[in-house]
């Protein structure tokens, strides 16, 4: 079997690469070892696929080279993808500023991508493993479960290690190393944090409790909801900051974001001097959390007994609450994989390897990781478009 382009991986980035390359008249074959295309697309956004974010900028991505993503993102914007969605009459809505979701099902996005690929003449085969890849004159010889394939170009769109139950493997990193690429250390990102020992015990019984916070770690801060789980902390604010947190990095929470906590406590004392601290805090925080704070950390007594300095100290603590996380829930629940193929060894304009002509890397396998909220899909579309224009 001879093709101009072999794409390994039928996820978001791989399918977009196939569409764009096929439109250019390239003969394209897409292979994926999973039993269906776009598995991560199907489960994303609670089954409704947060397919882009209209606020996308390079600042929404983590990479050892923060400039790498600029070229691809500039050449394929969220509005370009929205135009495709609209052309297929897929209804969508903006859930929170910039975050776009399907009204109905993420299946519609996969169906759209497969239809666009078919229209462009791309062949997509699932349930087909790629066994071996080697460079030969005029391109690559690839051993697959379908048989031998010859291709002038190979696009690695294998994703990262996140959610192995969907078929994630490190195969893309193996290909990169085979051709002399550096693979930067990988770890789980956009993932719940775990607590252990006394730190977990202090939150015991609060599972299911949610509140707005500002989470800070590694020089980054995110204001959004936090959810207490039976294993630790989750919710959008925690998932966001998890990409910046590592063992040994301090994690701090503002439990009353946007509020002067000390002033609120002084107002509580003025209005309800006989009320206990836990009662006043319950007017500012979820009741169960307010009670736990006063059981474990804060002195609970009538408000009239607190001096201004004490209320100021408590306000400062509530605005900068330290949390000692023990780790993350790992790749099992992580939405993305941080790290990956070193972008210094890949062209930012074409996504082609600087080590091996004709070898391309797109999407999550690269050391480019977006924030929560549709940014990683936009990188998939943009990087797939860039490679598709060049293969």
TrEMBL record:
This is NAD(P)/FAD-dependent oxidoreductase. NCBIfam families: aminoacetone oxidase family FAD-binding enzyme (TIGR00275). SUPFAM superfamilies: FAD/NAD(P)-binding domain, HI0933 insert domain-like. It comes from Luteibacter sahnii. It comes from the Bacteria. Residues 187-336 form the RsdA/BaiN/AoA(So)-like insert domain. Residues 4-389 form the RsdA/BaiN/AoA(So)-like Rossmann fold-like domain. The chain crosses the membrane at residues 6-22. Gene3D superfamilies: FAD/NAD(P)-binding domain, HI0933 insert domain-like, Translation factors. Its cofactor is FAD. Keywords: FAD, Flavoprotein, Membrane, Transmembrane, Transmembrane helix.
């Amino acid at each position: 079997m001879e093709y101009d382009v072999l794409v390994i991986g039928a996820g978001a980035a791989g399918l977009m690469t196939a569409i764009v390359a096929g439109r250019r008249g390239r003969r394209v074959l897409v292979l994926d070892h999973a039993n269906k295309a776009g598995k991560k697309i199907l489960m994303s956004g609670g089954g409704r696929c947060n397919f882009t974010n209209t606020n996308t900028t390079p600042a929404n991505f983590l990479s050892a080279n923060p400039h790498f993503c600029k070229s691809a993102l500039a050449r394929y914007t969220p509005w370009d993808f929205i135009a495709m969605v609209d052309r297929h009459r897929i209804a969508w809505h903006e859930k929170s500023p910039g975050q776009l979701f399907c009204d109905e099902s993420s299946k519609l996005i996969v169906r759209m991508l497969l239809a666009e690929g078919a229209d462009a003449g791309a062949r997509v085969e699932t349930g087909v493993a790629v066994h071996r890849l080697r460079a030969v004159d005029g391109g690559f010889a690839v051993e697959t479960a379908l048989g031998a394939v010859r291709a002038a170009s190979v696009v690695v769109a294998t994703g990262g290690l996140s959610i192995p139950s969907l078929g994630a493997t490190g195969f893309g990193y193996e290909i990169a190393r085979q051709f002399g690429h550096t693979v930067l250390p990988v770890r789980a990102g956009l993932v719940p944090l775990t607590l252990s020992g006394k730190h977990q015990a202090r939150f015991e019984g609060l599972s299911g409790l949610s509140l707005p916070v500002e989470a800070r770690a590694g020089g980054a801060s995110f204001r959004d909801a936090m959810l207490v789980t039976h294993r630790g902390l989750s919710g959008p604010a925690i998932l966001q900051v998890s990409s910046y947190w590592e063992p040994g990095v301090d994690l701090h929470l503002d439990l009353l974001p946007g509020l002067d906590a000390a002033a609120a406590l002084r107002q509580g004392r003025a209005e309800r001097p006989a009320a206990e601290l836990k009662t006043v805090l319950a007017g500012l925080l979820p009741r169960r959390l307010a009670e736990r704070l006063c059981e474990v950390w804060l002195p609970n007594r009538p408000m009239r007994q607190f001096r201004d300095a004490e209320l100021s100290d408590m306000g400062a603590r509530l605005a900068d609450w330290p949390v000692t996380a023990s780790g993350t829930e790992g790749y099992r629940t992580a939405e993305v994989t941080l790290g990956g193929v070193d972008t210094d060894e890949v062209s930012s304009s074409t996504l082609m390897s600087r080590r091996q002509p004709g070898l391309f890397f797109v999407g999550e396998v690269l050391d480019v990781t977006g924030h929560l909220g549709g940014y990683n899909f936009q990188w998939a579309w943009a990087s797939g478009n860039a490679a598709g224009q060049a293969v």
